[in-house]
């Protein structure tokens, strides 16, 4: 007979009445005291379930002190018994842990599959919701514009071609205006506050072509046009309850985008057009150089082009990620959309097909094409780095560090100055064609969410997060 726990012949053998398994009495008594189960079957077991077995055994002599060999052997035997019991328990725990791990792996695999399915269903639902939003706008009330789902018509395509040919021929030969700001003028810029009503939670700023009217809005959904010359608001635009996400000027017309997905056009303070095709926030808006097309991007993964002359949506392009930034090329033939996936997606405006992609470090915060027509600047959310992309080489050519998280970027008309509005201040970079080098003529501690160049780049208008306007002159 061998003990089921130690594997040795028992000196005081006992057997389980139910299973007949033999144990060493002292070992099984200790195990029952701790666990109350049979160590081999894990079924309930008590001392009453054990039967003493009669067997011949050697009578041990009375144990002497630990200085004798027999007493040492007895101590070693007791240690061995404890070790055998512990080893048996560890083997049981190992087997149980293996079973639990196997179960957890199966559960994890099932959870991953469920998450993938739910993610796919969510994306499909968002796409369907965006399509429903477009359809609803097509059949909505009189204050909503009709949607052209067939894409750009021939008239708009011809207008894009004419604009592209006209601007691309003269852009490279265009000289820097004589009265344009120099490096010394930029270095001398100093901030001064403007007495404008604050726009709580402001994040959008635009300056008209005259350099006088500042358009900005905040989290309360309202926007206003402020005259720096008269130091007073000219127009106040009421929103639809959503936060203002972006603003721009279309000549004398103000355009305001909101987190509700609407894009509104105002002329002389009166709303003249309203678009509501985005199924979610309209994150950014941009103007085509022809002045007849307006573009917007949204979290519904779509790019929408608006025909301003026909007061309708000309085309809607769906992408593979939520969109957070946008910009038309200065010649108007391509459109850049920045995604939450960190990718800059370049589209051909006429065909709506994707022409190229650039991968960045994170979700896009701001995009700006240089007036030289060959460079694109990008900034990612929470990042201090501005990346310059060359459209001819289709690659990154320069990284500029603004020293703080960049909220927006703007090139000047000549393409030599680039301003970065940051959470800790304004930084202006300058590129010298002659030296083919970048420099940093100005860094001002004026925290802002947006910055716009004034006349001849000799001034700068900035908007703080608290909604306060300031001017650097």
Tally of separate helices = 4
Rough outline? elongated
Rounded to the nearest angstrom, the radius of gyration is 38 Å
Determine the structural class based on helices, strands and strand pairing.
Answer: alpha+beta
Share in β-strands: 35-45%
Report the span from N to C terminus. Answer: 102 Å
Main β-sheet: number of strands, strand sense, barrel status?
5 strands, mixed
List the uncertain runs.
133-150
The total of beta strands comes to: 32
The overall pLDDT average reads 86
- Strand arrangement within the widest β-sheet reads 4-17-16-15-14
Question: Can you give the helix content as a percent range?
Answer: 10-25%
Question: Can you offer a commentary on this structure?
Answer:
The protein is α+β, with helices and mostly antiparallel strands and 473 residues long. The protein has 4 helices and 32 strands. The chain has helices at 25-35, 69-138, 154-171, 183-187; strands at residues 13-16, 22-24, 50-52, 146-147, 191-193, 204-207, 213-217, 223-227, 232-237, 244-250, 253-258, 263-267, 270-275, 282-287, 293-298, 302-307, 312-318, 323-328, 334-339, 343-348, 354-359, 364-369, 375-380, 385-390, 395-401, 406-411, 417-422, 426-432, 437-444, 450-453, 460-463, 469-472. The strands form 8 sheets. A 5-stranded mixed beta sheet has the order 4-17-16-15-14, covered by helices on one side. A 4-stranded antiparallel beta sheet has the order 5-32-31-30, with no helix packed on it. Strands 6-7-8-9 form a 4-stranded antiparallel beta sheet, with no helix packed on it. A hairpin with a 2-residue loop joins strand 12 and strand 13. The longest helix is centred in the N-terminal third of the chain and has 70 residues, at 69-138. The chain is elongated and about 120 Å long. The model is unreliable at 133-150 (pLDDT under 50).
